[in-house]
Amino acid sequence: MIRAILVDDEQLALRHLETQLLKTGRVEVVGKFSNATDVLKEMKNLDFDVAFLDIEMPGLSGLDLADLIIDWNSDVFIVFATAYREYAVQAFELDSIDYLLKPIMLERLEKTTARIQDQLQIRNSEKEKVPMRIESLTIDCFKEFNVLHNGTPVKWKTVKVKELFAYFFMHLNHSIQRDMLIETLWPDVDYQRAKIQLHTAMSYLRKLLDELGHSNAITFSSGSYTLKLEGFESDIHQFEAISKNEHVITSDNLGLIEKVIQQYDGDYMEDSDYEWATTKAQEIRQKLLNLLQMLVDYFDRQQNVHQKQKYLQQLVALNPYSEHATQQLMQHYVAIGNRGEAVRVYHEIKSILIEDLGILPDQSTTQLYDSILQG
Q1: Is residue 81 within 8 Å of residue 99, measured between CB atoms?
Q2: Residue 288 CA, distance from chain mean position
Q3: What gap in Å lies between CA 257 and CA 2, rounded to an integer?
Q4: Of the candidates 175, 178, 176, 197, which has an alpha carbon nearest to the alpha carbon of residue 186?
Q5: Which sequence positions carry the modification called 4-aspartylphosphate (predicted)?
Q6: Alpha-carbon span 209 to 58, nearest angstrom
Q7: What is the DSSP string of 274-316?
Q8: pTM here?
Q9: What per-residue confidence (pLDDT) applies to 154?
Q10: Three-state secondary structure call for residue 40
Q11: CA distances from 188 to 146, 193, 197 (A)
């Protein structure tokens, strides 16, 4: 028998659903509730396979309650019930095995309960198999946000599911309030509709992570979601670890620092065009500039002219408005006897500043240029 709980704030609808379920001969109703609060109090004391949830309820909706039930026990099947036809397809796309449109007919319930019964049989047989091994994810954030599973690009159900995962990954191991997710990822969508779209995208994302061997990676508690991952590699995590821990360059950490800088082939999620990633991208770029300056200073001390020039050029290319970096490069060219290149660098920054900002170079830069011309 399928063990079920029923949740609906309308007593008549609750009794009708129970009567229809008992007629199928497949279901034992182990709990009936008129609000989500009572469900949360009692569900840990109940053994049930499926929850039949009304979507529109005062206080905590059926959608929110489904999140909490799944977070508590991801094996519980969810069946949504709704009197609103516009929610029907969307409800089906959530973490649910089916949806029911009110008034609920016996013939429709027969199909639902048969589907649940089949899924329970499949699940019981799968429990005897060897558990899925968590396999490696490679998550690249520089330039374009990409996720690879064992070297193969992950296929996303929708672009919004990919963006949702990207946002979670940026806040890895930190809780994100649900309304913050809605406001950030669906800023121009009506709140109730955005809430449905969030739950739909969340359902697809959870299922995808489950297929990749990362079951229960996303949890929901106190109105907030949290992503926790194991078994992954990421260019941004390697970069941030280096920029955080390495304050002095030595021969021991030089190779590692140069390696993470080589991985930087574009700003953080630059081509993904996520507006919410802009602040993070600026922070990462500044950390890169700091590392490049450290490398310039290191190779200057080592009197390695070639490597110093290489990283000075990168520093100026990534920060073309920096007159300090420009002056360093000009002085470097003078030191190696290449005054022509020093002059070219000056005219380049002058052109950029006039075109982009409508200003002339700083007086100190101009004075350095004049001194170079005078020899």
Answers
A1: yes
A2: 22
A3: 58
A4: 197
A5: 54
A6: 32
A7: -GGGHHHHHHHHHHHHHHHHHHHHHHHHTT-HHHHHHHHHHHH
A8: 0.75
A9: 95
A10: helix
A11: 26, 10, 12
Give the CATH superfamily of 234-374: Tetratricopeptide repeat domain (1.25.40.10)
Give the residue from 298, 176, 288, 172 showing the smallest Cα distance to 234: 172
**pLDDT tens column, 79-123:** 988 876 655 555 555 556 788 888 889 999 999 999 999 888 887
* pLDDT value at residue 133: 47
Please report, for the chain, the start and end positions of each structural domain, with discontinuous segments joined by +.
2-126, 137-230, 234-374
Is the backbone of residue 150 left (phi > 0), alpha (psi -120 to 50) or beta?
A: left
Tokens for 262, please give them.
Answer: 């080589």
d(C-alpha 91, C-alpha 99), whole Å: 6
Is the pLDDT at 362 greater than 90? The verdict is yes
Point out which residues pair with 139 in neighbouring strands: 147, 234
For residue 260, what are its two tokens? 């993470």
Residue showing tokens 């008129």: 34
Classify residue 44 by its DSSP letter: G
The domain defined by 2-126 folds into Rossmann fold (3.40.50)
Q: Residue 254 and residue 264: Cα distance in Å, rounded?
A: 16
Q: CA separation (Å) from 6 to 2, 90, 107, 356?
A: 13, 20, 18, 64
Return the pLDDT at 134.
Answer: 46
Mean pLDDT of the chain, nearest integer? 90
Of the listed ranges 35-39, 88-92, 131-135, the least confidently predicted one is 131-135
Residues 49, 120 contacting (CB under 8 angstroms) = yes
Helix, strand, or coil (residue 128)? coil
Q: Strand pairing of 218-221 and 146-149? A: unpaired
Euclidean distance between CA atoms 103 and 31, whole angstroms? 21
